[in-house]
């Protein structure tokens, strides 16, 4: 039995269409009212968008309903699906806690409420019936002011039992004017001992080499092998890993064809740069991690040996996986203890 690690999944984009539709029907029918039937909603929710910014607007639809009261509902279904349908042994959930607090409160009040959100997500993710190692990545956001983003970094440092790292989200084309600010925040995060990743080099507008030294992993990063392959040796030396989410680039209009990813994988393997294959927004895409694997294989983007290397890289770069072995190896040790006998 293969068991997988998922390093890049957004809490907002993880809700599959059917679960979100049922929630709207039962609790907020006004949000379901514009659609005549479920199929119309699913088509709206999962269809490709023209740009990353247009695609990211869908997150606001879910963020509004993911409150401290409703998050356990959504997380239970997320974890159940991840365990039953995806064979996940490890899952990092990322989100911006500030955007799950009531928007009628003042900025300071919302900052104070963020810890409650992190605790709710942390407790709801720990399920005996669906044993998956989970942790959270807290996302700074390009739409939020410096004070809020700094508070997110500090909260991540304060809640390490639940949080394994920080990220920046909101579309990588929007960082330029505040780049010094983000560099300072990432430097601050590293000084606090935090693990770091960041949405970077996803689009052609999001190429910021100034941020690379502060990142342990790179969220997407596909424009590095596509447009800036001269940076790959640097990434290899620093042991940085790309979190590649194949379906995303077709949904956002970033790539025209999945075949374009062959260059990404080939150049990274040649340079010794690790790739973890991820889903990003499994609900928005209506896909699961094994489908991402199968799709890459079916389109001859990678072979089985490369797939296995990516799966191993995911565990190796997982911020909260504390074991030297993959879970299959641990199971083999249990099932065949005689293999561990010496002499």
Automatic annotation (TrEMBL):
Residues 5-325 form the Adenosine deaminase domain. GO terms for biological process: adenosine catabolic process; hypoxanthine salvage; inosine biosynthetic process. The keyword Metal-binding applies. Transmembrane segments: none annotated. GO terms for molecular function: adenosine deaminase activity; metal ion binding. Its EC number is 3.5.4.4. Its cofactor is Zn(2+). Gene3D superfamilies: Metal-dependent hydrolases. It comes from the Bacteria. GO terms for cellular component: cytosol. Keywords: Hydrolase, Metal-binding, Zinc. The keyword Cell wall biogenesis/degradation does not apply. Belongs to the metallo-dependent hydrolases superfamily. Adenosine and AMP deaminases family. This is adenosine deaminase.
């Amino acid at each position: 039995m293969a068991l997988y690690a998922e390093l890049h999944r957004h809490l907002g984009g993880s809700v599959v269409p059917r679960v979100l539709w049922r929630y709207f029907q039962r609790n907020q029918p006004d949000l379901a009212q514009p659609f005549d039937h479920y199929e119309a909603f699913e088509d709206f929710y999962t269809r490709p968008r023209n740009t990353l910014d247009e695609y990211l607007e869908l997150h606001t639809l879910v963020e509004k309903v993911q409150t401290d009261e409703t998050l356990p509902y959504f997380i239970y279904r997320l974890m159940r699906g991840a365990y039953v349908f995806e064979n996940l042994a490890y899952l990092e959930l990322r989100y911006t806690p500030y955007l799950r607090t009531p928007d009628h409160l003042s900025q300071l009040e919302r900052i104070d409420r963020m810890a409650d959100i992190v605790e709710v997500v942390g407790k709801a993710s720990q399920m005996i019936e669906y044993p998956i190692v989970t942790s959270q990545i807290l996302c700074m956001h390009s739409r939020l002011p410096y004070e809020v983003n700094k508070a997110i970094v500090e909260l991540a440092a304060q809640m390490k039992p639940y949080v394994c790292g920080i990220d920046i989200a909101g579309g990588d084309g929007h960082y330029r004017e505040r780049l010094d600010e983000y560099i300072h925040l990432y430097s601050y995060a590293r000084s606090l001992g935090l693990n770091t990743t960041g949405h970077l080099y996803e689009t052609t507008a999001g190429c910021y080499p100034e941020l690379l030294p502060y990142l342990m992993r790179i969220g997407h990063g596909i424009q590095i092998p596509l447009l800036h392959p001269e940076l790959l040796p640097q990434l290899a030396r620093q042991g940085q890993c790309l979190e590649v989410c194949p379906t995303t680039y077709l949904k956002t209009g970033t790539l025209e064809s999945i075949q374009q990813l062959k260059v990404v994988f080939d150049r990274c393997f040649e340079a010794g740069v690790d790739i973890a294959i991820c889903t990003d927004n499994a609900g928005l895409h209506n896909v699961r991690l094994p489908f991402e694997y199968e799709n890459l294989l079916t389109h001859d983007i990678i072979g089985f040996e490369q797939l296995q290397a990516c799966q191993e890289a995911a565990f190796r770069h997982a911020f909260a996986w504390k074991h030297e072995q993959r879970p299959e190896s641990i199971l083999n040790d249990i099932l065949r203890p005689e293999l561990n006998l010496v002499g």
